[in-house]
UniProtKB/TrEMBL annotation:
InterPro entries: Porin_dom_sf, Porin_Euk, Porin_Euk/Tom40. One of its GO terms (cellular component) is mitochondrial outer membrane. It comes from Nyssa sinensis. Pfam families: Porin_3. This is Voltage-dependent anion-selective channel protein. Forms a channel through the cell membrane that allows diffusion of small hydrophilic molecules. The channel adopts an open conformation at low or zero membrane potential and a closed conformation at potentials above 30-40 mV. The open state has a weak anion selectivity whereas the closed state is cation-selective. Keywords: Ion transport, Membrane, Porin, Transmembrane, Transmembrane beta strand, Transport. Belongs to the eukaryotic mitochondrial porin (TC 1.B.8.1) family. Its main location: membrane.
């Protein structure tokens, strides 16, 4: 694949990951195994709100083909079939979920040095179509996406965004929810190895005149330990500690507090991912 401006979904992703990735409020345990033939098997158990669920995910890779199959405790089977470079600079993804036969989707991605295009068609009756496009370079990109409902002939969503990326920082602005919300974020890395970073994000919803401002950061204590924290203007404080207990196996401890209501019970999460 070419190194171009990236997909539209990449705009604002760095800031979003810093503020949301690995923050959990439940107990999760997963075990992964791999074979030399390209087969990967992951079993996951989750306990949330007193309820226990689990799933088994299998991935098989062969040359430019990837097959993902996931089975949950309710016997739902999700499948994804990905083919890269079947045509130059393209990726094709098909997905189905059984027994929900109307959940099928076909997605085609085209990545060029200065533009990317994505078309996703829901394989139900009548089909819905999602389109996105991004133009620019790895340093600056402009993009937009839209969802079209063929039955009513109306757009179900439209979003536009811009991102500017430098070696030590990344800024983005996204106008979404049919123009009702605007979200701006800025990420700054304090060292070349990107062991420490700070992020600020502000979101405004015009229909309710509501503003949400969130600041956060991450710091790699050493090669095995990472700490993260975030706080928004509504008083929600989140923190996590992530430690590589053995090579490739990670323990994550996460918590969230309401600083404006200290009598409220804090939320805690625990995750352990074991990999060979």
């Amino acid at each position: 694949m070419s190194k171009g401006p990236g997909l539209f979904s990449d705009i604002g992703k760095k800031g979003k990951d810093l503020l949301t990735k690995d923050y959990i409020s439940d107990q999760k345990f997963s075990v992964s195994t791999y074979s030399n033939t390209g087969l990967a098997l992951t079993s996951t158990a989750v306990k949330k709100g007193g309820l226990s669920t689990g799933d088994v995910a299998t991935q098989y890779k062969y040359k430019n083909y990837v097959i993902d199959v996931k089975v949950d405790t309710e016997s739902n089977i999700s499948t994804n079939f990905t083919v890269t470079e079947i045509f130059p600079s393209t990726k094709i993804i098909t997905s189905f979920k059984f027994p929900d036969y109307n959940s099928g989707k076909l997605e085609v991605q085209y990545l060029h040095h200065h533009a990317t295009f994505t078309t996703a068609i829901a394989l139900n009756q009548p089909p819905a179509v999602d389109l996105s496009a991004t133009v620019g370079t790895p340093a600056i990109a402009f993009g937009a996406e839209a969802g079209y409902e063929t039955t009513s002939g109306k757009f179900t969503k439209y979003t536009a965004g811009i991102s500017v990326t430098k070696p030590d920082s990344c800024a983005s602005i996204i106008l979404g929810d049919k123009g009702d919300t605007i979200r701006a974020s800025y990420v700054h890395h304090f060292d070349q190895l990107k062991k420490s970073a700070a992020v600020g994000e502000i979101t405004r919803r015009f229909s309710t005149n509501e503003n949400t401002f969130t600041v956060g950061g991450s710091y790699a204590v050493d090669n095995q330990t990472l700490v993260k924290a975030k706080l928004n203007n509504h008083g929600k404080l989140g923190a996590l500690l992530q430690h590589e207990v053995i090579p490739k196996s990670v323990l994550t401890i996460s918590s969230e507090f309401d600083t404006k209501d200290l009598d409220k019970t804090p939320r805690f999460g625990l995750a352990l991912a074991l990999k060979p």
